[in-house]
Amino acid sequence: QDIFPVIETINTDQNNENSVVNTSCGVAGSLQANEVIKIITNCDGVLDGKILCFNTLRHVYRTFKLMK
After folding, report:
1. Which tens digits make up the pLDDT trace of 10-28?
2. What is the pTM of this model?
3. Which residue in 25, 26, 31, 51 is deepest, having the highest Cβ count within 10 Å?
4. Which residues contact 28 (CB under 8 A, 6 or more apart)?
5. Residues forming a β-bridge with 61
């Protein structure tokens, strides 16, 4: 709103929530596509046996190892 204060929408709250959800899905999809490329090209650093969690609000990424 500070960058584009002139923009007017019918329901600002709903539009802001949808924007956050859409970008979060885009980030998750990009991360998944990147993992597939790493697996196909046999690169190091594949998240095999791990879970990557990301917080889009704070821009924090954490990796957790899975136990057998």
Report:
1. 555 555 555 566 778 888 9
2. 0.63
3. 31
4. 54
5. 54
Q: Quote the tokens at residue 42.
A: 């046999």
Cα(51)–Cα(40) distance, integer angstroms? 19
Give the list of residues 6+ apart from residue 27 with CB closer than 8 angstroms, or none.
Answer: 54, 56
User: What is residue 45's three-state secondary structure?
Assistant: coil
- What gap in Å lies between CA 21 and CA 54, rounded to an integer? 13
Cα dihedral 43, 45, 48, 54 sign:
negative
Q: What is the mean pLDDT of residues 60-64?
A: 93
pLDDT of residue 11: 56
Structure tokens at 22: 């859409």
